[in-house]
Amino acid sequence: MEHEAVEGLRKPLEKMRMAKNESSEKQLMRRLIHLDGASNRRLEPKKTKGLRKDVYIGNLPSEIAEEQILQLFAAFEPVKVRKIVSGLKCYAFVDVGDTENVALAVSHLNNTIYNGRRLVVRELCESRGCERSTAATELELPPLEKVDKDCSVGSKTLSVSCLVKGGSQTSYAIPLEMRSLTLVQMLTSCFKDVGWITESAKVHGEVGLMVMDTFPHMPYFWAMNLTPETYVKMCQLFNALSVVTWEQPFLKKEEVQRGQRCMAEFPGEGGEWNRCWIVDVVESWVILFYVDSGSTACVPAGCVKSLDNDKFWAVPPLVQPFVLQQGVMGNRKMDGSILKGRVVGFHEAEPHILRFSMTDED
Length: 362
Description:
The chain is of the alpha+beta class. The protein folds into two domains: about 1-140, Alpha-Beta Plaits (2-Layer Sandwich); about 150-360, SH3 type barrels (Roll). It is about 25% helix and about 30% strand. It has helices at about 1-15, 20-30, 40-45, 65-70, 100-110, 130-140, 155, 180-190, 195-200, 230-245, and strands spanning about 55-60, 80-85, 90-95, 115, 115-120, 120-125, 160-165, 170-175, 205-215, 220-225, 260-265, 275-280, 285-290, 295-300, 305, 320-325, 340-345, 355-360. Strands 9-10-16-18-17 form a five-stranded mixed barrel. The termini are far apart. The model is unreliable at about 1-50 and about 125-160 (pLDDT under 50).
């Protein structure tokens, strides 16, 4: 039994690709597994009473479930988790029982990669000063649009209903980055013109769409309408960006502000530099909206370059939002996939989000 317990502890550590720190691992095992099979916590005096036992974890994908967050912390005896979605930002607070687990969780999980995102894991201070700082951070980062939690009005204002397998109907809330209030802010800051919203709603009939970003198990997705005009604009834009990428200076600390247009490397293997809009600033990190793919990512503030010349913003966003007429997107990566079908209407509350019906072969 003792051997099985130790192996059970090592497996989640290996799965999360933790750095193998022998002293930390021994400390963790010694605290959890007593030679007689009892927890050391029962034998040691309670020294952590009154101290904070929560861990902050940021840069989470918004679709992550609280159960999945608990699995991330499985090696540190999580007691409960509280997930918070604020605008495009998703983070959580995890109670790990005592301060020893707090320190271990931070040392092992901070800066690890989860679903392509670099996690930010830190300890929450117990002092009043730290509490004020945490509270102030939450106040400074409100959602970009207030969401009414009343499901009775959701079908008219915030969501779309789709038929799923079995014939049942399910409502899905519109992602905040697709809503007009957010897009108007972005268009005004970056392009000085919101006409893109009106033009994007004019697409109709047979279309071929290149999927750029999806929301797992939801019907919404960002895609590029494959027309000759779009192809020409794309070539012009990325040729211009490739010429100036290495000449552009990195933004200074005081220049990294919410609502700033800029450029940053697109997440992934390619690493091409794309046009971006700063959605939020969280300490030394920025949440970026990549305007030509519909993607969002959290990157270090020092990795963002200036792109404030209007000539780079003459081409409107290359992508626009769509919603499936039936079904939802799966969990698999669909970036670059081509979908053929018809635009059959638009979202009741957000006309720039077009309803797309795939052909049978797709």
